[in-house]
Amino acid sequence: MASYDVIVIGGGPGGYVAAIRAAQLGLKTACVEGREALGGTCLNVGCIPSKALLHATHQLHEAEHNFTKMGLMGKSPSVDWKQMQAYKGDVIDGNTKGIEFLFKKNKVDWIKGWASIPAAGQVKIGDDVHEATNIIIASGSVPSTLPGIEIDEKVVVSSTGALNLAKPPKKLAVIGAGVIGLELGSVYARLGAEVTVIEFLDAITPGMDAEIQKTFQRTLKKQGLNFVMGAAVQSVEAMKTKAKVTYKRRKDDSEHTLDADVVLVATGRKPYTEGLGLDALGMEMTDRGQIKTDANWQTSIPGIYAIGDVIEGPMLAHKAEDEGMAAAEVIAGKHGHVNYDVIPGVIYTHPEVANVGKTEENLKDERRAYKVGKFSFMGNGRAKANFAADGFVKILADAETDRILGAHIMGPAAGDLIHEICVAMEFGASAEDLALTCHAHPTYSEAVREAALACGDGAIHA
Amino acid sequence: MTEVRVPTLGESVTEATVATWFKKPGDAVAQDEMLCELETDKVTVEVPSPAAGTLSDIVAAEGETVGVDALLANIREGAGAAAPAPAVAPAAALASDAGAAVDVMVPTLGESVSEATVSTWFKQVGDTVQQDEMLCELETDKVSVEVPAPASGTLTEIFAAEGATVAAGGKLAVMGGASASAAAPAAAAPAPAAASTSKDVEDSPAAKKAMAEAGISRDAVQGTGRDGRAMKDDVARALATAASTPAPAAAVAAPRAPISADDASREERVKMTRLRQTIAKRLKDSQNTAAMLTTYNEVDMTEVMAVRKEYKDAFEKKHGARMGFMSFFTKACCHALKEVPEVNAEIDGTDIVYKNYVHMGIAAGTPTGLVVPVIRDADAMSFAEIEKAIAEKGARARDGKLTMAEMQGGTFTISNGGVYGSLMSSPILNPPQSGILGMHKIQERPMAINGQVVIRPMMYLALSYDHRIVDGKGAVTFLVRVKEALEDPRRLLLDL
To answer: Could you say which of A65, A408, A441, A461 is catalytic?
Structure first.
C-alpha cells in the first residue's frame, strides 16, 4: 500500500501532535485513528468535555450564589440537561474538527481504523498494510476498575459514561478521590446531586502537596461533597436504576454500604495496547503493562517509538504532547526536549488546583533544606472582587540558593498561573527573580509574586 | 561555541588584568594557539585556544580585570567570515563619538605592567594642543611615560585626574569634536548587561541586584544559568570565594586620625602597587597563622671561606659557576632538615605533612619587591648545581620573568639579609612552610677560642619557625647542625 516516513498510531493529544510536528519537519506522515473523530480520550471523552461541563456548572454556581450579591437579580437559571449535553457535544466537535483541519493543512493522512504492527516497519489497518520507516505508538489509556467491579456505563460508570449520563443523578457515589473523581463529583454536586467520594487512602489527590490536599478537601466539603476516607470498596451491586456500594473502613474493618443512583469508578487509568500485536513482536513491557522506552522514546524494537499514556510517567495530555513533539524531532534527526521535572498538573474544579515541581514531602524525603513562601488569595484584590479569594499560592525554594523547586496553587485560574513558575523553573530562576518581575495590577498573578516575596523578606500585601 | 576562560593563575592569585589580545574577532585560531596575555602581580600568563575555529567575540577586553575561570572570549566552529561580535568592554571603546572627537588612551606601559598613576597633566580642559604635543605624564612601578596628543585639537574632557589609577588601554581624555557628550564612561565604568555568549541573554534580575549591591563586577561571576546567564546563587558563590581570598582589607583598617593642615601639605599619598598589597596581605596572614618565633646562633665562617679561597678557581673552571656561600648554606640546611624533619614540614588542617624532599626557596630582592624562587630537590643537587640554579633563577627574578610554578612548592626558605648589611634579624615565615633561615652580614669579631682572643669572620644565624609543629629543641638542634656543618664542612661529606 502506501509508504511513509512516520506512521503514528493513535490520534489523541500525543499522537496528533506528533503527526503534525513530524509533518512540519518535512516527514511524510500518517496517523491511524479508529474513533469517528480525532483527538483521542482527551478531546472526546476526557479533558475537553469535562471542562465544558465544569464551565457550565460553574456558571450556574456563580448565578446561584453570587449574582444577587452583585445586583444581578432574578431567579437563577434552571438546567436543561439536553442543551448542556448539546453544548458539550459542540465543544467536542469544534475541537476534533479543528484537528482534522490541522491534519489537512499539514498534509497528514488520517487512516481510519484500528492499527496493528505485524512487523517492524509495517502497520496494518484492516486489510491494508502500510510501510513506515518509523512508527510512533500513541495508543493512550482506558479507565481501569477495581477487581470485581463491572462497569456498564449506565449505572456503574467510568469517566466516559459519567460525561454522558441520561440525566444528572440525585445521588452519586464516586470511588476514588483523584482528579477525575473530584472534577466530575464537582459537576454533579453543582447540579444538585448528593455526592459522596469514597477514597482508599487518608488524603485526597494522592501525591499532591499535603497542605493542598487538606485545604482542597475542606473547600470541596463546603461545596457540598461528602468524603469517606480510608475506605476500601468491596463490591458494587448494580440494579436497573441504582446501585449499592459496599466498603470497609481500613482503620477498624467495619463494613458499610452506600446507596446511589450512579456509581462513578474513578480509580485510575491503564495503558491501552490491545490489538497492536506487541506480544508477537516481542516488545518489552513494564510490570504495569506500559511500553518500555529509552531516553529517546525508542522501544525495544528499533524504528518503533512510544509516547503518552502508554509509557511511564504522569498520564497527562500535555506530557503526551511534549513527548509527541520530542519523538517527532528525534525521528527527524534533531534533539527532543522534555523536561520531566517541570510538568504542571491541574485540577479544573473551582477553585482550580495546580502544581509543578516538588512537594514539601518530596523535599523532606530528599533531606533538602527549603523555605516556603505562601500567600493567601484573601490578600489579592482581584480575587476578592471576583468572589474567588479561597485558596493560596505556595512556592518552595532552596533554602540556600533561593532556586524555585516547586509551587502549589489553589485558587482562581491556578492552571494558568502555574505557568509563570514553570518558565521560571525552566530557567533555574530564584524566587527573588520572580519577585523582581513586574506583575500587572490587579491580576490573580500578583498572588504568585507575593508568594515569591514571601520566600525572601516577606509579602507586601499580607 | 567554545568558551575561552581564565586559567588557574596560581596559589592565592584570584584575578588578572587582560594585557594584550593577540587575536581579534573574526580571526581564525588553531587549537593551543595563544589568544591573549593576562597579567597578575607575579607573572604574565598566556591563554591558549581550547579549540580550533574562529574567534567569535571578545568578552573581556584589554585592560579589564578578570577572575579565575571568568569568560574571556568565545570561539565558534569553522574559520571564515567573521560575524562582527558586539564590542562589550568599555575600555576598548575606541570609536570616536562625533566625527571630530578623538580619545586619548593610555599607551602600552610595558611588559607585565597593567596600571599606572597619572602624575601630571601638562594641559587643561579647553587648551588647544598640537598633534604629538605631550598631554600628561603617567607613572608605573618601573617607568614614567609621557602621553602625546593623538591629533591636533582642543582638550575637551579629562577622565583620569592627577593621582588617578588607569589601566593599560584605558581612556585618559577626549579631544576635539563639538560633542564631548555621549561621553563614554571613564575607564573603570562597567558596560551595561554584557552578554556573556553571543546569544541575546540577560542575567537574572536577582543576580543583577546582588552584583550591584555587593559592588562585584560581572567578570568575577561565573554564570551557570542557561546560556551562561548569571543566576542569584552564582553571585553568592562569587562573593563567598572573594571573601575567602585576598579581599580588600580597607574595611578592616581604622581610618587615619585627622592630620593638621600644616602636616597635610607636606605629605604625599601614593597608592600601593598590586604587588605590594599582595605581599602585605601574605605577610600578615603568615604572622596571624603560625606560632612564630625565632632562635639565634652564630657561625664562624673561617672554614667556609678557606674552602672557597682554595677551590673557587678550580670550581669555576670545571663547573662554569662561581662558588658562592649559598651552596654551603643550602647543603647545610638540607643536612639539618634530615635530622629535624618537622622544620621541613607543613600543617594541613589537623595533619602534619612531612616531606621527603627539599625544595629550597632562595629569597631574592628585585626592584619591584621580594620574590622567592624555589630550587626543587635541592637536597639531591651538588654544590655546582645549586650555585647554577640560584644564579639562573635570581637573574630571572630580577627581570620579573619567573613563572608561577617556579615560585611554588617550596618546603624551606633561606633569606640573606647580609647583602644589605643586616647584622641580626628575625625573618618572617613563608607560608605554608614551618621554617626559614636568616643569613646575615659576615663581620669580623673578637672571639674567645681555647682561652685566646682571636678575630674571626662571624655571621649571626636566625631560624624563625612555627612552634605549632617545631619544638624549641628541634629548632635549636636544627640551627646547631647548620652551624656545625658550616664551621666544619667535612661533616657534610661524612653525614655528621
So the answer is: A441
**Residue B22 burial by Cβ neighbours in a 10 Å radius (0-12, 13-18, 19+):** middle
CA distance A195 to A172: 5
Q: Nearest Cβ partner of A436 from B209, B225, B226?
A: B209
| Cβ-Cβ contacts under 8 Å, A397 against chain B | none
Please compute the mean of the pLDDT values over residues B49-77 and round it to a whole number. Answer: 83
The CA distance from A431 to the nearest CA of chain B, in Å, is 9
For residue A91 the three cell numbers come to 465543544
* Contact across the interface for A428 and B206, Cβ inside 8 Å: no
| Pairwise CA distance, residues A253 & A199, whole Å | 15
At residue A51, the pLDDT reads 97
pLDDT at site B246: 55
Residue B11: pLDDT band (50, 70, 90) is low
* Burial per residue of B146-177, b for 16 or more beta-carbon CB atoms within 10 angstroms, e otherwise: ebebbeebbbbbbbbeeebebbbbbbbbbbbb
B440 classed as catalytic = no
B231 has a chain A CB within 8 A of its CB = yes
Any A CB within 8 A of B229 CB: yes
Q: Quick check: B233 and A433 CB within 8 A?
A: no
Task: Confirm whether pTM is higher than 0.95.
Answer: no
Q: Which strands form A262-265's sheet, in the order they lie side by side?
A: A156-157, A262-265, A171-175, A194-198, A226-228
Q: At A312, phi and psi to the nearest 5?
A: -65, 160
Nearest to B278, CA basis, from B266, B290, B286: B286
Helices (H), B340-471: 383-398
CA distance A280 to A276: 9
Distances (CA, A) of A355 to A320, B306, B460: 18, 89, 78
Residue carrying the nine cell digits 460525561: A163
Most A-contacting residue of B201, B204, B227 (CB-CB within 10 A), to test interface = B204
Sheet with B128-129, strands from edge to edge, namely: B102-105, B171-175, B153-158, B128-129
Per-residue pLDDT, B99: 43
Measured between beta carbons, the chain B residues lying within 8 angstroms of A433 are 204-207, 232
The per-residue pLDDT for range A229-248, each reduced to its tens digit, is 999 999 999 998 899 999 99
| DSSP 8-state code for residue B377 | T
